[in-house]
Design goal:
Elements: H1 5-14, E1 20-24, H2 29-41, E2 45-52, H3 59-73, E3 76-81, H4 92-111, E4 115-117, H5 122-135, H6 139-142, E5 148-151, E6 154-157, H7 169-179, H8 195-209, H9 214-242, E7 243-246, E8 251-255, H10 263-278, E9 284-285, H11 286-295, E10 301-304, E11 307-311, E12 315-320, E13 329-330, E14 337-338, E15 342-346, E16 353-357, H12 360-369, H13 376-379, E17 383-387, E18 390-394, E19 399-400, E20 415-419, E21 431-432
Parallel strand pairs: 1-2, 1-4, 2-3, 4-6, 9-21
Antiparallel strand pairs: 5-6, 7-8, 8-12, 10-11, 11-12, 13-16, 14-15, 15-20, 16-17, 17-18, 18-19
Length: 433
Amino acid sequence: MTLDIQKLASFLDRIDTPSEICVAVSGGRDSMALLHALHALGQYTVHALTVDHGLREGSAKEAETVKANCEEWGIQHHTLQWSHNGKIDRGLQEQARQARYQLMFDYMDASGITALCLAHQLDDQVETFWMRLQRGSGLKGLSSMRPMSVRDNKTLIRPFLDHELDVTREVTTAYCEEKGVLFIDDPSNSNDNFERVRVRETLDQLYKEETLSREGVLRSIQRLERHDRDLDYAAHKFIEEFVSFDLKIGTAFIQSYINEQTFPLRRRVFDYVLAMVGGRQEPLLLSKLEDCIQRLDQEQKLTLAGCCIERTEEGFSVLREQRHLPEPITVGEHVTNWDGRFDLSFMSTDKASIIKTLDEKDVQEVITLTDKVYTAVELLTLPALYNNEEWWVIPSLALVNPKLDHKFTVDFSDIKITFKVIDYLTYQGRVQT
């Protein structure tokens, strides 16, 4: 069995893959097979990205090997370096994963590319399922990775997870051998200090004993994914009808009708609302989310995931907590998002101006200017444009400091800060244990 290029092309067409894409390439068999296949299709401008984590001897040479292959195929290649002090003693693989995504996302932002292809295949899917099962994950965690998802405004495409392609490690190995594609065996893939390696060895043994069937696990994952999508859709419809957002200040109100819904639906609605209001990008612990919802039956105020939640007779108000807000950034820096909540766009490159949270000394003035519509708590989490310690503009409110009217005119097409609304049906702010 080998990789079916035409099925790959059909999958990419089906999800409207843009013509210019990034591909994460470690040099292993899966990523090299994906890179070669995408190049062979001839439909895409491909940017191959290799992250050198600098964690072991030989990693730089491996990146050079990938680069040489890309040059031979006429694919542009970029090696991204992870800078660290080498003293990573806990959670090494998770920290490396986070750094890897951030480096690739930074490259994509700088290049204006919105889609990233990843070479996870069905064996990876089963391993992920098993690891999450051991942790007691819920429906979303057990439905595992999706062939297409959204993170940080980037589309993550994992074509080898499409069940019609039926791509396993055996398939990518056969493809590389058939096409003469050289690949690197990462020594960490046989290091049983890592959980995934231990899980892989356990699964291989269970397959040999016929105690477990990979195909059976994959069928279960498919069914769980369908249930997960159904719950996503129900949450989407509920939010559409019973949750209101103030997009100027990034707050939400969930109507009390939520209390009459099933616990899984309540949990999913709160997950999405908290993700938007709190700007969360990373998974929220399922146990914390469940505990929060249960406690809201008794308690009036709680904080979770960077949000303050207050229960009233009419429902639940949700606003950003005044903690862990971003440091000031200079206008003109390549920053496209602020606090995970507001998308930024600047035409101006005035280095004297900065974006930061509204200062407490200016809050009363802004409350007055907005006719006391907003409270200090709400305003103190908003991004504002400052120049020489003086606030000039609060773009999300389209509010200009009246004292400065004689100094300049604000063109709000030049300075845009808009609240980021998540597509609930593709958002992957997964809750897990």
